Amino acid sequence: MVDSDIALPGDIIAKEEEYLPGKNTEPYDGNIVATKLGRIVRDDKNLTISVVGSNKKTPIGVGSIVYGKVIKINGKDAIIQLYAINEGGKLHPVDHEAKLMLPVQGKSGYTHIISLGDIVRAKVTSVKPIYVTIFNTDLGVLKTRCLICRNELILKNNVLYCTNCQRIETRKIASDYGNINISGDNCERS
Ligand SMILES: [Zn+2]
Prior knowledge:
- This protein is an all-beta fold.
- Helices cover 0% and strands 43% of the residues.
- This is Exosome complex component Csl4.
- It is found in: Cytoplasm.
């Protein structure tokens, strides 16, 4: 559960027995999960819970630290749906698609660098079109799910582990993978 009133995509914001999923949310495994960065709005009359984004647009520049979800993988590149930018230690909503170039399998040492639906922290390397990289210690996957059962993977003895099927998987994870605040220590949810 999220303490703050700001939700990031993938955050569990309520149980399905408490509310009906409203705007920018979806039911998942008995919970209601945010699909967008925004403020949590609870409508206790209609028993719905929604996430309302801001319309303020923050420009993206080279070097910007951004957050997004992997929505497509084409072999040598992936498409990341960016939803937030870190500006002065605070997250602001953005809405862009970015491309991430993936190294040739085998050379990188990762079986799977990323998987569909992963939440990543990335750095912008070019704009128009937007390209990002995740190949730095503080960058990479922040949330991922088991490829078999879709359970969220935890970090156990420095490996990604599924407590449901006892599988070990590999991703290029950020150094703070598994932190409750997925936006990072120096980064408040504003
Ligand atoms: Zn599993």
